[in-house]
Here is the input.
Amino acid sequence: MLFMIIRKGDAITESGALPGAEAIEAMGRYRDELTAAGVYRGGDGLLPTAVGAKLRYSNGRTTVTDGPFTEAKEIIAGFVLVEVATLADAVHWARLCPSLAGGEVEIEIRQVAEAAHFPAALRPAVARMPWSTASAQAATSPLGAAA
Here is the structure.
């Protein structure tokens, strides 16, 4: 199973301050551990919302709002993807994740949708989705090949 370990944003990550050498080294060691265990599948940090935008769809209209966003509790500062057997395993790896910013940190763990989560009849359509995990699996399964 593929899980995303999500580092929630806060005032520190929203400040735009980049992590120092010590934090970068700690994250490097963390990635080395994940890689050595064979569970690392990717990850990235995100810049502050001040350099982003939100789109809201309502009644066929799109509204674009430039950052920064005031709802800091909903901000994602970064993520790591791990492929493990259980949610408990994902929790284990999340507990080992060093904070890039210090202070109080919130981490959320979510399972990634994969082709197997969709009914077989939908897999040809799933193979065309922009979700890399679900679409790659659907495209390579016998039921995922487009007719």
Remarks:
- The radius of gyration is 18 Å.
